[in-house]
Amino acid sequence: MLSQGLVLVGNHPKFNNALETARNVAVTKTPVLISGEIGSGKKALGAYIHANSARKNARFEIVDCSFDSQTVEKIVLGFRDDETGRFNRGVLEVANGGTVIFANIDALDENFQKRLYTILQELPDYELDVRILATTSKNLSKLVGAGKFSRALYTYFSGVSIDMIALRERGTDVELIARHFIEEYAAENEIGDISLCTEAARKLSDYSWNQNLSELKTFIRKTLSNMDGTTLDIQAIENGERKVEFTTSETDEDGMKLMSLKDAEKLLIKKALVFTSENRTQAAKILGVSIRTLRNKINEYRSEGASYFVNLR
Known about the structure:
Largest sheet: 5 strands, parallel
Number of strands: 11
Mean pLDDT: 86
Helix content: 40-55%
């Protein structure tokens, strides 16, 4: 099942549990909150829920709440075109009978959060039958506690919550997904079968994919586009357009997977920010660095295009 370029493939127990829960709730109308790191397949799971419901032949719409507040409001409520005077219906009306997923719900403007809750509560009054889903890469409960997210809206979505496991925790699933992306690329470009050698598959599985499925797919496609021959091997990986530092397959005495110092630093800073609901002062204190050092690191990761830090408020 594909959605936004991401795929639902794998055998890991936690992944299968998420998929089973999605199938079970698909037949209901209950709002669902899908949590997980950026690129872990949250929107793909939302599409899976829609495709396994009685609404599968109706519209499936995505609202990206990380857009500016004015744009989000226009998408949700509709707007009149200044040039033509034509009124463009809001997504809730367009998707009547179908499903709407509010992606990155944590980024929704605080002033619009309460309004959205009221709108969702009043949908039946306007004879609108829409299944509502939401995704987040943040801990909404902590954001509520910090006064940064509406408790009412959180309660609306928190009845059913599904967590998507990070790719680096999925073991052999990485190889399965990589092979899927290879087959997808080969089919799109009509270049026949491309094989993945065992050593290359192992190296892909050992890497800590901080951007999860989206990063793996981007890496596979860039590597294949610059590869000669029909075998994705170690040399092809190393000669790829985007070089990455792979982790070793060994673990330390605490059972922690090793990674590059830069990746470890980035991951630790991200975890501190998530833990403190993005309170930079508290995060800097936990990390034992100055607020200025933390700010410089955030700006560095933003300039590199790291999604979490680009979207950091």
